[in-house]
Amino acid sequence: MNLIDDLKWRGLLADCTDLAGLGERIATGKPITVYCGFDPTGDSLHVGHLMGQLTLARFQRAGHHVIALAGGATGMVGDPSGRSSERNLLTREQLAHNIACIKAQLSRLLDFTASANPARLVDNADWIAPFTFLDFLRDVGKYFSLNVMLAKDSVKSRMEGDAGISYTEFSYQLLQAYDFLHLRQTFACELQIGGSDQWGNLTAGTDLIRKKLGSDTTAFGWTFPLITKSDGTKFGKTAGGAVWLDATRTSPYKLYQFFVNTEDAKVGEYLRKFTFLSREEVEPLEAAHAVNPGAREAHKALAREVTKLVHGQAALDAALKASEILFGAEIGDTSEETFNDVVGEIPTKSVERAKLEAPGTALTELLVHSGLAPSKGQARKDIEGGGIYVNNVKSPDIARAITSADLLFGKHLLLRKGKRSYAVLTVA
């Protein structure tokens, strides 16, 4: 498949200002320059931002030129699209910090050192900040009809709500439109991509380019669908909050678990949208899932691919090792960092270190303390029945005492009852 057909097969086309024209432009064989913007409202992107990054990466892998735009200027204003209230405004220092952090995350998916078509990271504060208010009104504002601006969905929805919309946010579409114009003039950028909620901002940009540079100037807008769960709720949220791309905020193990627990109805869609697996690789996984969904082959492939893309092979290996521990694998040479990810997923209780000094504390007592057994009598029955494991090693001795020598990394004890009931005791 050519690039556009591949993007359509992956479900990455919501709308395009001129799909036929874009297809003809790409068919010329001359690389096109495409950009996607990221407002640095935090020091980490989340999984919802992967669509923009991955779509840029697909263009780059196809030989095109890609630009990631960090909204150092627009981030100070806040995009009203998809929001019911105004964002908190950030200082320049906060934005500079966030942009530096985000570039490291972008570097996982975009190649900034490629010899033929290296990715670029630009900050729109570089060209918007020097603008005076009067110059902006004269050189940009006069090209926008207030009637058209008020008709944008992102504006209408806010005006119809109780909170309304501030002049600051109302002006956002002019700033984003000017970004596209600047990139068109500076880097010959012809295509802007974004989520479907960005349609109004994208068309504002293509309109401004044609008004300023001539009606025959090529400029295209492409949106991809916003990702939602089966119930229509926002993708990328868990009970613990957003799923971040920064490993210090969401560990590779938790990212892996997020995707391995994808709804059955969504796993095929996510394989196409969140991975670089080809059609020949994805369709057999979808077929296998339809025949035997319990094997979760498609889910595991999805989780592996995304974790490796975002964090690299070493982090994926550690995440897989952590997952295996919860399926009874030996602890072996597992790192403390990997084991800590497991601890975060298992009920944990503290135990006094003094209780583990020789001769230690009876395993039966610790099973009750951990909550794995309701009484010492039941704990003995569970041990005799071969269903109790200490650090994932079967422990059939009802007289066994646990000492500090049994602690993992000098602080943790992993107890398991049966195949799936775990508890961790951590020394206080």
Element layout with pairings:
Elements: H1 3-9, E1 15-16, H2 19-27, E2 33-38, H3 50-61, E3 65-70, H4 92-106, E4 120-123, H5 125-128, H6 133-139, H7 146-151, H8 153-159, H9 167-170, H10 172-187, E5 189-195, H11 199-213, E6 220-224, E7 237-238, E8 241-242, H12 252-260, H13 267-274, H14 279-291, H15 297-311, H16 313-325, H17 336-343, E9 348-351, E10 361-362, H18 363-370, H19 376-384, E11 388-390, E12 393-394, E13 401-402, E14 412-417, E15 421-427
Parallel strand pairs: 2-3, 2-5, 3-4, 5-6, 9-15
Antiparallel strand pairs: 1-6, 7-8, 10-13, 11-12, 11-14, 14-15
Helix pairs in contact: 10-11, 12-15, 12-16, 13-14, 13-15, 15-16, 16-17, 18-19
What does this structure look like?
The structure is a single chain. The chain is an alpha/beta fold. The protein folds into three domains: 3-224, HUPs (Rossmann fold); 251-343, Tyrosyl-Transfer RNA Synthetase, CATH 1.10.240.10; 348-427, RNA-binding S4 domain (Structural Genomics Hypothetical 15.5 Kd Protein In mrcA-pckA Intergenic Region, Chain A), CATH 3.10.290.10. The protein is 43% helix and 14% strand. It contains 19 helices and 15 strands. The strands form four sheets. Strands 1-6-5-2-3-4 form a six-stranded mixed sheet, sandwiched between helices. α12 (252-260) runs antiparallel to α15 (297-311).
Q: Which second-level CATH architecture of the largest domain applies? A: 3-Layer(aba) Sandwich
CATH superfamily placement of the largest domain: HUPs
Please tell me how large the radius of gyration is. Answer: 27 Å
What do the pLDDT scores average to? Answer: 91
